[in-house]
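Q: How do we represent a protein-ligand complex in a form that can be generated token by token?
A: Start from the inputs.
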Amino acid sequence: HGRSGRTAATDGWTPVEPNVRDTVSVPSGYRTSLVAAWGDAVVAGAPAFDPYAQTPEGAAQQFGYNNDYIGVLPLDRQHALLVCNHEYTNEELMFPPDTYDSATTKKIAMASHGMSVLKIQRQGRSGSWKRTSPRASSYNRRITASTPFELDGPAAGDARLRTTADPSGRTVLGTLNNCAGGTTPWGTVLSGEENFNQYFDKSGALDSRYTTSYARYGITGTGSRGWSEVDPRFDLTTEPHEPFRFGWVVEIDPHDPRSTPRKHTMLGRFKHEGANIHIADSGHAVAYMGDDERGDYLYKFVSADRFDARDTQAARRRNLQLLTRGTLYVAKLTGDGGTVDPATNRFVPTDGEWDGTGAWIPLTSDTTSYVAGMSVADVLIDTRLAADKVSPTRMDRPEDVEPNPVNGRIYAALTNNSNRGTSYPVDEPNPLGSSNTRPALGAALTRQSGNRNGYVLELAENGNDHAGAAFTWKLLLVCGDPESPETYFAGFPKDRVSPISCPDNVTFDSVGNLWVATDGNVLGSHDGLFRVPVAGPSRGQVQQFLTVPVGAECCGPLLGPDDGSVWAAIQHPGEGGTYAAPTSTWPHTHAFPRPGVVVTHRA
Ligand code: FEO
Ligand code: CA
Ligand code: CA
Ligand code: CA
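Then emit the structure tokens for the protein with calcium ion bound:
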């Protein structure tokens, strides 16, 4: 550790050029294999995948749709547990036309949400991995939109969390729209419930008690998925509390397949992208989190209790309670000065860097609210409304936020904000009111209003105290095409970086290089995965390692073990097309696309 971004397994490659190929492209000398795809058997007894013979019961035993977060938890040198989120479904790509009735497609969609746990096996000494037979694994598990979860923490049982089916307000069926996540130092997986508002519709009026809350979360009753047809709890008119039971960080224990997964009210309710843990020097567990909406906030949680590093059952039980008590904070970033250029509507920093200081503003502990007029439960259930009252910094869609285990700094993907510079004025942490895109690969740059390509923010806790309340920050990357004047790559020469657009998920290799996956490239080429050293002379040198197929975003990313395996989740390949008229057929097993998880390794 501490060397300047060098690691044997992932060094010495030539970056992948921007392209629009319907495949996963990696540097010469590397090979990619498919580990799991939508429809593959997860649970023993699962039916073989057949697009014409799909059933809700079968889908609940098979790998779900639109894999997002990837966790790999080692069991021994040759085996591990692969944990994946299944964020949402693309019915237009899943079902042959005129094959299923409406109710069946909705039930299959519900069963194709959630998470998968499956045992995998390393192929010899290579970086390649394969699924083991479900019959040979007692760990394999599917979690769907119907799996019971326990609500815990201070807001559990609150009147707003009670429904007809659950008068206790403590048991929720399912997890929805699971986006990114994090693997904890105590061997569990966290997952963020993101755009949960889209699942709710209405048969009549909305409950007027919740008008303000619903509005702040985009809960309009116009959810497009129509699930109330098969499950009445998704009808807001009759079950006004069901949406309060989503939008949480969930924790599952993949090592204990019989455990009840939990939703932690202590970490607040918003459109959680994910959560990543750093153990502070004091021993407290600190969770860093983003709320992915234009103009929303960065958060952190600091546990009241300390992580117990011992490998005992008692320590394990204690660690499983860390996310139930503590303090929730929201971030305010202050710049150190500059001016807005009226010609471009961009913030030009006086010192040449977009940087400054910041404060973590406490919202509530498990016993005391710090927001006037709101109780602890109010703050945790309506976290966005609570945060609004303390004037945090409105950010450009905070996605994955993750501490770098080598340098202790925190890296946040701020994916884009088409309304920056108009409804959200520019400031030093959000400097672009206009930016350049390419309508197609090779086409000329075109200036548009807003921040279209996103940023990567680097945040350093004062004194490296992750439990503290003050930090400094700077933009590590102002993304885009390096030919575009507004881009910035930590000062690295622009003629030696890859174009990068719309950072979404981040991870780190063993020497602390940042790896960034993208979603929504507006430079005319496909999304992918990029390596960015953050120390030494190569700091800021963005290099593309992987590109994804037509219509897909790159999710997951993860390196390990020993940087020898580069994991990526290929989400929504072919989005924009249909089953009958596909724009992608990746992974080329059928005439239609299938989301899947791939691993890339030295050939
Ligand atoms: Fe599901 Fe914010 O990406
Ligand atoms: Ca500055
Ligand atoms: Ca994401
Ligand atoms: Ca991550």
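DSSP finds seven helices and 33 strands in the chain. The two ends are 25 Å apart (CA to CA).
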